[in-house]
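#structure-requests
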Amino acid sequence: MDRIDEMIEAIIAREGGFVNDPDDPGGATNLGITIHTLRGLGLDLTGDGTVSEADVRAIKRVDAARIYRVEYFERPGIARLPQAVQAAVFDMYVNSGSRAVRLLQDVLVAFGEVLVVDGKIGPITAAAAHRVARAVGADRLNDAYGVERRNFYYRLADRRPTSRKFARRRDGGKGGWILRAEEFIARRWHLTDAQHRARVASWG
């Protein structure tokens, strides 16, 4: 198992099995692979001539792993980034597509880089990421990215009430989105329970 396989196994573990939450824009999902992804790739796993929920249910770990490696790691060019941020950007790409790269680009701009925030890892973005990693430290870049990812989830839930359950548990604690973002950053950057509750207090 190589390093990419290890990241993929961790993603599959976070994503879990089949779900079809009506509040999740991704629709029917299994091992993190959505029905929209299967349709986009034309993967009729059941061979019945259509891509439906049945195909989502039929996804095996080997199918998911192949899709993650090709569509979410290799195709976006995540290997071009500093190794320290690859796992976080990879995980976010699975969760939010090219938004993951736009968030990284926003962070790079905040560190003083001049680039177009277009969601693509081209040579300019890759070079900027490596410059920032050398200048401030790869771990600091990774932490800054994780904090921005967490803030993105909060802002999304601010705008979309149906998504708040993904950022805040029923008991008011941190929801899955927030915990997932913080999994990739140093503990000193984790919000306390009180800080989290204060951030979401306006949601009622």
